[in-house]
Each structure stands twice: as C-alpha cells, then as structure tokens.
Specification:
single chain, 218 residues, alpha+beta, six-stranded mixed sheet, three-stranded antiparallel sheet, 28% helix
Length: 218
C-alpha cells in the first residue's frame, strides 16, 4: 500500500496496533493517507515504522529507526549480523517474496546496512539469510532459506505457549538465545547447520556478542 504521512500529530488511538504499539489507549499519533483510496489511517510512530519494515506500506522518503531486533558484534565490536524477527503471516504461499519485500524496504529506508549479513527470522517457519553484497540489489533473493524447525526445535519446544500464539517478543529472545549459543559453539558435523558454515556466518559471529534491540550504523 502506498501511504503519505500528513505530519500532523494529535492524541488518539492507533488503528494498526502491532505488538510494538504505544497508542492502544489515547496517546500521540499521526494520520497517513492511503492511496489511491485516500482513506485516513491513524497510527503511532512504532506501528508506522513496523508497517514500513514489513513492506505493508510504501512511504516515499520515509526513514525507519536504525535498530535491529538483534545484532551480533565481533570481539572487536564490529557489526557482523543484523537480525529482523517477524511472526509468519497468515498467507504463507509467497513467504519468500514477502521476506524479499521486507529486506528491500529496510534497505530502501536505511533500516539496515548493506555490507553485513542480514537474517530475517520468519517464525515459526523459516530463517532467510543474505550474505554481504558489494552492489545494492534491492530485490535480491536470500542466499539461504532454512526451515526454522530444523534449527530451532529445541528453542521452540521451550516456549511457554504454542509457536502459533507466541509473540514477536518471545521470538526475538528465542533467536537471541540461539545466536548466543552459536557464538560460543565449536563447529559440528550437524547437516542442518551446513549453511551456517558454508555461508561464512559462523566465522563472522564466533566469540561475538549478541545485543538485543541494538542501534546499528547504516
């Protein structure tokens, strides 16, 4: 959906109400126009950013917060991996295309750096990994698409609720715990982790530090 912010801020209730919403009760919000129908949608800032991040809204010139749900830094504090965590959408037939759209929007709106590994965890279904690129290709397909159940089963089984009803916050901490284990681990011959070593991601994050809700340089 193409949208245009009005720039007007007023008190109200957010119509979108993602899990990051700060206006489920009366709070500062803004209005955006949906095109071509010219429908007004009232939205708080975090939900507006989430709509852009997810590819649901296209806003020309928009900038999203330079934040990663999770990031991994090398021992010398260089950024190696940026992670975005999403709950799988109800429509899963075009999940890969949906993942490509999220990455494209984050690159287009300066949400993630181009020259680092990017992992999109669409849970409980897939992990999509892009390796570093020298040339900007917004619609680049992921280099690896891995079934999350093959990698994260142990962590999914620990959830206090079912994978289908878990929140994005639950999933963010799950991915963070998994990455901390990977960073401390030694290489194994587990076939399900072949992509981790083949892609170079393991070497990039080993002995590194995992930071949740990290500010990332772009």
């Amino acid at each position: 959906m193409k949208a245009e912010p009005t720039g007007i801020v007023f008190d109200g209730i957010c119509s979108i109400q993602t899990e990051k919403c700060v206006a489920k009760e009366v709070a500062p919000i803004t209005a955006v126009w949906q095109y071509p129908s010219r429908i007004q949608i009232n939205v708080c800032r975090p939900c507006l950013e989430e709509q852009v991040r997810s590819g649901e809204w296209e806003i020309e010139g928009a900038k999203v917060e330079k934040r990663a749900d999770c990031a991994v830094f090398s021992p010398d504090r260089k950024l190696q991996l940026v992670v975005e965590v999403k709950k799988a959408p109800a429509q899963k037939r075009e999940l890969k295309e949906w993942a490509i759209r999220i990455r494209r929007n984050l690159l287009a709106h300066s949400g993630i750096p181009l020259t680092r590994y990017f992992l999109l965890a669409v849970l409980p279904d897939y992990l999509f990994l892009w390796r570093p690129q020298d040339k900007l290709i917004l619609d680049q397909a992921p280099d690896y698409a891995v079934r999350a159940g093959d990698i994260l089963k142990e962590y999914l089984d620990r959830l206090s609720t079912s994978p289908e009803t878990a929140s994005e916050y639950d999933y963010e901490h799950l991915v963070g715990s998994w990455l901390e284990e990977i960073a401390r681990s030694v290489p194994s011959d587990d076939a399900s982790l072949k992509w981790l070593y083949e892609s170079g991601l393991y070497d990039a994050v080993k002995h590194g530090s995992v930071v949740m809700q990290a500010t990332v340089p772009v």
